[in-house]
Amino acid sequence: GAGVSQSPRYKVTKRGQDVALRCDPISGHVSLYWYRQALGQGPEFLTYFNYEAQQDKSGLPNDRFSAERPEGSISTLTIQRTEQRDSAMYRCASSLEEGTSGRGSYNEQFFGPGTRLTVL
Amino acid sequence: GQNIDQPTEMTATEGAIVQINCTYQTSGFNGLFWYQQHAGEAPTFLSYNVLDGLEEKGRFSSFLSRSKGYSYLLLKELQMKDSASYLCAVDRDDKIIFGKGTRLHILP
Prior knowledge:
The complex is a heterodimer of chains A (120) and B (108).
Chain A: E1 5-7, E2 10-13, E3 19-24, E4 31-37, E5 44-50, E6 53-56, E7 65-68, E8 75-79, E9 88-95, E10 110-111, E11 115-119
Parallel strand pairs in A: 2-11
Antiparallel strand pairs in A: 1-3, 3-8, 4-5, 4-9, 5-6, 7-8, 9-10, 9-11
Chain B: E1 3-5, E2 9-13, E3 18-25, E4 29-37, E5 44-49, E6 53-57, E7 60-65, E8 70-75, E9 84-92, E10 96-98, E11 102-107
């Protein structure tokens, strides 16, 4: 596709349920990032991948959160046993070059529309 | 660790000039991004600075001083559509870290 897509756009779930959020990056983009963004705040880094390898997951809040990108393209962020505090906008971004390549604008991240998660 | 500071909110008048400052303290610094984010939308790329100095792109310019850990985004000839949040983001060796953003309000 022309841009980064995410699905679902909105997800309402009950506390304790598992959710899976999908990100489809721009074709050919090497790196894929997951962020969480609260209202009125900047994106908070969760994790990122170069190709299929998860490079950094230091931003994942706890072990209920996990992410994978098995074929180096589509990625899934999974939240197990959701809690109300998990409610937020989850954004995905992709970039042409490897994150940490230091090649400046090639690291420009293109953001998807986000998934608004609400945990009741 | 890292620390990125930018003002929470600013107000300016249509047609005027506004400067949004960003200071940072971080290790492994590669460069600095500025992104624009309209309410309810995804952030979009504005600029990337690696070297010290001013980079101009139309009505928007971005400045970086690596030694001072300081950057600013300069918006000229403000238009109502410039009402948005402006995010400063540090490109580190290991990841990109965003500031909390500055909400810019434009008055007619």
